[in-house]
Amino acid sequence: MAGDILIIDGVATNRIVLKVKLLASQYRVRPCATLDEARAEIAASLPDLILLDISSDAEQMHAFCQSLKADANTNLIPIIATGGFKTPRDRVVALEAGADDVLTKPFDDHILQARIRSLLRGRDARQELRMRDDTRTALGFAEACNGFKAPARVVAAFTTNPLAPDLSHLSQTLENVQMTSLQAECLTRLDLNSGSTDLFLLDLRAGLSDDNVLFRILSELRTRSTTRHAGILVLLPEDAHHAAAMALDLGASDTVYSTVDAAEIRHRCAVLIQAKLEADALRRTVETGLEAAITDPHTGLFNRRYAMPHLTRLSAQSRKDGRQFAIMVLDLDHFKSINDTYGHKVGDEVLRQTASRLQGNLRAVDLLARIGGEEFLVAIPNGVYHARTAAERLRKLIGGAPFFCWPRPTRSPRDDVRWCQPERRTGGHGYG
């Protein structure tokens, strides 16, 4: 997972050591000794993540975090605060100032790498949702009304009975929360389809006989449609570094050790619940609020009205962070002959099956839209090489199997589907 990481540390040795470790993981690294240097680097190009040492001047560093989170251009950049953190309260203060995570020195390298991967994944998901919400605004739709806010649903799973005191009191200290508890081993057998859970608390501080139990639970929760978007906070024994790193890579939203106090657990729970509720609201905006206006009725894909403003936003974001993206225009040549030979109902079914095949072989972050009669547009947040590979895969997908449309199948349009390289131009327009 490539990314641009900004290191802010006043000690040259620390900067060098971190840079070497991150470069070995294929990250781009920009080390800074002072906040002034960091501000200049951020102004020149937004980083994907910031590693901030707060040992030298905690108050100044906290103010820096607050300023980044208050700015709409930088508030999605994850911040990992590192330092000595002499008291548990010091960690909570850093989190309240805007740090997305805190690591007490010396920290395990595997944990650092897993934290970075997890935060970058979360940032990409939030950025995509934010971009789609901005597109909705650009289309001129009003913001959704804030209706009745139901209590957040929290499920606390434990390995010891009863539930630990610092967790049993969360329902009183967290605002508008409905909490239930059960044995951790019961999670994989629990029927969670009756409603959406906002946060899972997995209290494994007493230990597990087998770490694979935790890994199975995480895999199960991330697989189910009703729980895949829920926040997951895993509490682990102090020395469970391997389990913590694996948990983050398998989909845990956050992990903490048994050394943290109740205030930090409460803060992390509140952040995860709020993030889940905000993401749900943004998803509902896209899925329901705009469906009629921005969805092609024949294929269920986004239509031109959605795609064009979204491409404008994507282009602006690309210029801002320096990341490449690629656009493909897919066209079914001689599609008119299908309509003429078999009728428009069969032609519509071919379009629906084409859309289904394309959608099933693209990622959630890729944009797929129908922009014309038999023309489809794909926007991929990668460079030309990945786009060419994807284009060839999609070409084979469409041309490699027949389209079965009742009462009789149409021929496969294998000879009618082509993609042209950027250097091949017609009328001044190239497609790649």
UniProtKB/TrEMBL annotation:
<dbReference type="InterPro" id="IPR050469">
    <property type="entry name" value="Diguanylate_Cyclase"/>
</dbReference>
<dbReference type="GO" id="GO:1902201">
    <property type="term" value="P:negative regulation of bacterial-type flagellum-dependent cell motility"/>
</dbReference>
<keyword id="KW-0597">Phosphoprotein</keyword>
<dbReference type="InterPro" id="IPR029787">
    <property type="entry name" value="Nucleotide_cyclase"/>
</dbReference>
<dbReference type="InterPro" id="IPR043128">
    <property type="entry name" value="Rev_trsase/Diguanyl_cyclase"/>
</dbReference>
<protein>
    <recommendedName>
        <fullName>diguanylate cyclase</fullName>
        <ecNumber>2.7.7.65</ecNumber>
    </recommendedName>
</protein>
<dbReference type="GO" id="GO:0052621">
    <property type="term" value="F:diguanylate cyclase activity"/>
</dbReference>
<dbReference type="InterPro" id="IPR001789">
    <property type="entry name" value="Sig_transdc_resp-reg_receiver"/>
</dbReference>
<dbReference type="GO" id="GO:0043709">
    <property type="term" value="P:cell adhesion involved in single-species biofilm formation"/>
</dbReference>
<feature type="modified residue" description="4-aspartylphosphate">
    <location>
        <position position="53"/>
    </location>
</feature>
<feature type="region of interest" description="Disordered">
    <location>
        <begin position="411"/>
        <end position="432"/>
    </location>
</feature>
<dbReference type="InterPro" id="IPR000160">
    <property type="entry name" value="GGDEF_dom"/>
</dbReference>
<dbReference type="InterPro" id="IPR011006">
    <property type="entry name" value="CheY-like_superfamily"/>
</dbReference>
<feature type="domain" description="Response regulatory">
    <location>
        <begin position="4"/>
        <end position="120"/>
    </location>
</feature>
<dbReference type="GO" id="GO:0000160">
    <property type="term" value="P:phosphorelay signal transduction system"/>
</dbReference>
<dbReference type="GO" id="GO:0005886">
    <property type="term" value="C:plasma membrane"/>
</dbReference>
<dbReference type="Pfam" id="PF00072">
    <property type="entry name" value="Response_reg"/>
</dbReference>
<dbReference type="Pfam" id="PF00990">
    <property type="entry name" value="GGDEF"/>
</dbReference>
<feature type="compositionally biased region" description="Basic and acidic residues">
    <location>
        <begin position="412"/>
        <end position="426"/>
    </location>
</feature>
<feature type="domain" description="GGDEF">
    <location>
        <begin position="323"/>
        <end position="432"/>
    </location>
</feature>
